[in-house]
Amino acid sequence: MKEMDVQVREGTSSAVAVAAVAPLYRDECTGSEWQGRGLKPAWLRAKVAQGRALDDFLVPGGHQVGLLQVWWTPQIPMQPFSVSVASVAEGVRLLDVLAMYDLFQLEHRIKPDFANTGGLRRWCADSDGEGNPGWEDWYDEVSGIDDPREWLQQLAGSEATRSVGGKG
Fold this sequence. Notes:
This protein is an alpha+beta fold. About 30% of the residues lie in helices and about 20% in strands.
């Protein structure tokens, strides 16, 4: 049975059952935890600012295989960050927004150049070929396509072909 949290929405008399989310990150010294949703908590931001890697705080087995993240590395001295996304399409939209914002800053002379980078990655059970779980760049295992935009375009094209073929 799944553990549930019950939350009452302010201004209503109804209770909403919400599935408890297992923590993805934990500080073993303090016991502080984060589920990987929303902004990083202060304790984790402080540890990363001190030079620790985010992956140092992963809860073993806490990530689900197939979990997706957009990662982004802004210009130095900014810290890289990641955001969980629900789908490849959502990841592509977020990457596009980040890139458009960077271009806006360049065109309006807010930043002197355009040197940021990012991508989509997934959590997998064997990220290094030796059975160790971790993050790896996203790719489609069926087609071998490693560009999420290209994969979405191919998917949209095959669905359009199916729907046209189904009408005739």
